[in-house]
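Bumping with the actual sequence this time:
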Amino acid sequence: MEQDYISNLDVLILCGGFGKRLKEIGQNCPKPMVEINGRPFLEILIEHISSFGFRRYILCAGFKSEVIEQYFQKKNDDNTYILSKEDEPLGTGGGIKKAESFILGSTFIVLNGDSICRANLNDFVEFHESNNASVSMAVATIDDVSEYGSVVINDRSEINGFKEKSDHIKGQGLINAGIYLFKKPILDQIPSGQNISLEKEVLPSMIGQKFYGFKTTERLFDIGTPQRLEILRTHIKLTD
């Protein structure tokens, strides 16, 4: 994949989380800015993404967006940072739609701002383009899908369905890794100004519309609970 193509792709990061289950954050910090071994999680995530050549970041923020804005305004690196501010919660799907005017290219990448999976993003873009996909989603293997729900993929890598998380569905399976590639016309299917879930509303409606799953062997980490946050802190301390 040509490096110029990668550097010109817009990267949307969904930063609107409140972090209600992370008491240590307090009331003055958005979830993606939680501290991981002395650094904001969002900075660690962006550093990983940038290692593949991405340079233009659209930060979709809501709660305490000024914390994110002030931090990244001070960054002195090769990246461009744009804040797409939500005045009221729009959900993951609505947040992407709100940022539409900032997206310059015909294809863009989206990542959750509260999880990290160190998948090879250059390979992911190559996969998306080679399949002429409208939407591609990275999927990771996990030993127990009961806490996450699972993704159903056929032998052509097309996503056929989603199974909700349930105590009745256990065992190894594929889960949404929180990394997506979209062709911009897909945004026409998302209404403006509404609180919409990407995972529960937008993605299920994409089934049958050249929707593909990119399998990665990399582990998915998230900061959704204090326990998972501590697992990530330990992992980063051991690997950095």
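The tokens above came from a reply further down the thread. The chain has seven helices and 13 strands.
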